[in-house]
Amino acid sequence: MAANTTIVTRFPRSYEVQDSITRLANATQYADGDILSDHATVPTAGAYFTLDFKTTNQGNGSVRLTDFTLHKSDLDETAAAFDVLLFTTLPTLANLDDNAQCAITDAEMLNCKGVIRFLAAGWTNVVLGNIQTISKEIGIVMDSDSSIVYGVVVVQDTYTPGSGEIFTLTAHAIME
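User: That's the sequence. What structure does it adopt?
Assistant: Structure tokens below.
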């Protein structure tokens, strides 16, 4: 799992936060509503995106997310539609098994702060995969003891992945 934060020093300050999920080494087709993660039975920290805003004023305000870019390492874009659910509290890992129906509870969904929808028709082919950018503003109040926003990937429609495919989410944010 790779994560980094890039800061542009000015006010308001701009941030670029990025993390990756490497899925299993198989090409098992996903059904509509399946979770995409790094493990079939015991998900790890690589099962979801960890967007760490530790360089912001943690606990003293909010972060405004403005743009989201999803890169997938496989060039096949057939039915590649995904929702990335954003949480301030991570759902139970047992509910994040790869290729299993999303089992996030109603109580856990109360911590969902927004959804980014990447549509099947929006992909651009690049040499090393496909990429799509969504411009959408989501304001998130940071918890007093955390600076992290978690992203859980839910497949929309059916999707046949590449073996060991890597998904990388980049979020652009503004702190004022």
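The chain has one helix and eleven strands.
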